[in-house]
Amino acid sequence: MIKIYTKKTVRTLSVSNLPNEDLEHVLWIDLLDPTADEIKAVEKMEKIELPTRNEAQEIEVSSRLYIENSTLFMTATVMVRAASPDSTTTPVTFVYRPNRLVTLRFDDPMPFKGFAVRYERSPELFQTPQKVFLGLFDEVVDRIADILEFVATDLNDLSTLIFMGESRDPGAINYTEILKRIGQNGARTANARESLVSLQRVHGFFTETCGNLSGEQVDEHWRITGKDVIALADHANFVSSKVTFILDATLGRVNSDQNTINSQQNKIIKLFSVLAVVLLPPTLVASIYGMNFKHMPELQWTWGYPLSLALMLVSAVVPYLVFKYKRWL
């Protein structure tokens, strides 16, 4: 899809209509998951060669930041679907000239949606390609800040649940769900750090080369945005360390609860083992006198039955007292 942003309007164009378009007042051409024909049409119109998806995903700085025919090519890593469980990143290429900005992306990050709404509402705020680029850059940075705030809040909730929640029996907490949330927050933080590193490179490359390349004055707001990126990078490192701490603490609680459960199970098994030993002698006595042999003198005794009961009681009490004396109970 091809969208063009002029100083007053926003339109979606097809490949067939693109050659007839008056580009004099076009500030921004946005390519979203374009077809091969759309890419060729824009390349022919702008006399540039856009990077392929594979080239945009390369991590070498020379492949992401370069100058070609007095045009700046800058590829940044931007977070997509950051609030969902399948958070990931996507490369976004910015092609900058003093008269026009071209963006190439293969996914639809939230900052582009937010900036498009801002542009349509107040186009007078973005009357130059540099203003458009700066606005997009700001939206990306603000989105990362929002995601880091979300992660920090969720980590605080997890910390409360793990450390300061009311006492619960072992096994009452669903640690599987907690570990899943920690893993998702860890992925978001890692994606944010990756994105911030690429944004720092893009920021430095643009502010250093823009003025030298075309003599265009670099907007003062770029300096503020650069400081925001650095501050967010430091905050992302802090959040990452907190994710690691919460993960270690959760695994410690899992092991502690498992040890408690094992200890309780051992006590139960120990109790049944003692009962088996205590009841074994009475069972032996009862088994002997339960045999149906014809000649058993004890069966004729007047006091045979009470004596057998007393013998069974003594045979049960003696092992119990021995266990208590040995402190096995």
Automatic annotation (TrEMBL):
Reaction(s) this enzyme catalyzes, per UniProt: Mg(2+)(in) = Mg(2+)(out)
What kind of membrane protein is this, topologically?
A: Multi-pass membrane protein
Q: Is Cell membrane found in the keyword set?
A: yes
Quote the InterPro entries the UniProt record gives.
Answer: CorA_cytoplasmic_dom, CorA_MIT, CorA_TM1_TM2, MgTranspt_CorA/ZnTranspt_ZntB
Gene3D superfamilies per record: CorA soluble domain-like (3.30.460.20), Magnesium transport protein CorA, transmembrane region (1.20.58.340)
Primary site of residence:
membrane
Segments crossing the lipid bilayer = 271-291, 303-323
- GO cellular component term, pick one: plasma membrane
A Pfam family that the UniProt record links to this protein: CorA
This protein's superkingdom?
A: Bacteria
Drop me one GO molecular function for this one: cobalt ion transmembrane transporter activity
* UniProt keyword terms in alphabetical order: Cell inner membrane, Cell membrane, Ion transport, Magnesium, Membrane, Transmembrane, Transmembrane helix, Transport
Location of the protein in the cell: Cell inner membrane
Q: PANTHER family, from UniProt?
A: MAGNESIUM TRANSPORT PROTEIN CORA
Spell out the family assignment given in the record's similarity comment. Answer: Belongs to the CorA metal ion transporter (MIT) (TC 1.A.35) family.
Q: What is this protein called?
A: Magnesium transport protein CorA
